[in-house]
Structures are given as structure tokens and as C-alpha cells.
Amino acid sequence: MTALSVALLVTGVVLIALEAHVPSLGVLGVPGVVSLAAGAVLGVSALGGSVVFGIVLALALVGISGSVVALTLRQGLAVRRRRIRSGPEGLIGHFGVVRSWDEQAGKVLVDGALWSARRSAVLDDDEDQLELHAGDQIVVERLNGLTLGVRPAEEWELHQ
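^ that's the sequence the OP posted. Answer follows.
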């Protein structure tokens, strides 16, 4: 029984440590907390202690390790909510300048790189506003492979 309780305690500690370093969002941490609690109860009872003391010890371990797991979960979720800042997907919402344009497609300069671009979806009443010419300011709306979907930047966007 003592070997089982030690194995459960070690397994619980390892799972909680892995939760802090692997973005599993609780898949490793919650079983680690349960393993710690079960190991504490079994260990105290195997060594001749009362079950009540084992449960109190297990609750203390659950409180401490549960707060560690909750902290790592909160930090992991905060990272997932962050806006993408690098790579091609990070270009969405960035401003650029049209270098050359022919009807539906052209070349735009965004963040110092020249990209192929196409006009974003055109609404019937906005047809006049989407005419693009060299030197016009644009906003990147989407990314399809290595082609950007762009629209003209509105005046209020440029002065923020």
C-alpha cells in the first residue's frame, strides 16, 4: 500500500509539473491533483494514521496543487486569446500602400514586404469606393495562401 501511495504522489507531482510546461489546459493537471489527493490518503492510512488526518492532508494538497493548476490554466488561456503578431496571419489589420493595381488584383507594400493582393468582397453600393490606384492606403482583411485580401483604408482609420 505504501508503494502505491508513493507512486500516486510522484505521478501527481510529475503531472502537475508537466501541466506547467505543456499547454494541455488541464488535461494533465487535474488528474495530477486527484493523484496527489489519493496518494496522501493512502499513504497516511498505510503508515497507521487516521483517515481523517489523511483527508485533511489530501485537502491541503488539493488546495495547493489546485491553485498551481488554476494559475497555469489561466496563463494558458490568456496566451490563446492573444492576437497573432508574427507570420503571415499577423498581417490582418495592418495598413499598406498600393504599388500597382489592375482592376481586381495588384501589388501592395505591407510592413516592408511586397505582397500580391486581391480586392476583398465588393458590395454593390461600395463599387465606387473600392477603386484602387498606386499610392492608395489599404487595410489587410484576410489572407489566402500568399495573397492578401485588401480594401481601401478609411479616413478615420488612418488618423488613429
